[in-house]
Amino acid sequence: MVVPLLALPDSRAIMQSMADHGIVVRRAKSIEMSLVCDFVNHHWEYWTDEVHTAFSGSPTRVFVATSQGTPVGFSAYDVDYLGVFGPTGVDPAQQGRGIGAALLLRCLEAMREAGYLYAIIGAVGPADFYNRVAGAISLPREWPNFTDPDQG
To answer: Residue 29 and residue 55: Cα distance in Å, rounded?
Structure first.
């Protein structure tokens, strides 16, 4: 999927809703790498290395959602390829509260702030979610992409 970053919806309402419910969504600090990677490893072991890589930039390319200082979700971008959003995840016990939408929008805003006009969502799971929250558009299935083993 591709997201036109210049057409992102305003995220202020969802960020206020998160704050009203005690959820803080922000860019992760490098000193939190172990905390966030441990959270990711607990829920999605296969993404731990990618998140670790996203901490290598300055500023980091990782966003975290916390409740009382404890991670409840994360999102990252520019991990294996520039301009690609993901991975992202929300603690299954916390899903359905808007945390994923807040993380998606904040991460995409950071990509826009970094100068990107479009973001690619490569390994698409919930396509309807990405379309509804960020206006993501499906790319033609026949286009080669980084999730194809032969495309590298």
So the answer is: 8
Distance CA 114, CA 83 (A): 10
Taking the CB of residue 125, how many other CB atoms lie within 10 A of it? 11
Both tokens assigned to 18: 């998160």
Task: Give the percent of the chain with pLDDT over 90.
Answer: 87
Please state, in angstroms and as integers, the Cα–Cα distance from residue 37 to each residue in 25, 71, 86, 115, 146, following that order: 16, 10, 14, 27, 23
Q: pLDDT by residue (tens digit) across 88-117?
A: 999 999 999 999 999 999 999 999 999 999
Written as one letter, the residue type at 19 is A
Ordered by where they begin, the domains of the chain are 2-143 (3.40.630.30)
Q: Which H/E stretch holds residue 18?
A: helix 12-20
Distance between CA atoms of 9 and 42, rounded to whole angstroms? 32
For 132, the token pair is 């509804």
Residues 6+ apart with CB under 8 A from 103: 25, 63, 65, 73, 74, 75, 88, 90
What is the edge-to-edge ordering of all strands in the sheet holding 23-27? 2-4, 118-121, 84-90, 70-77, 62-67, 23-27
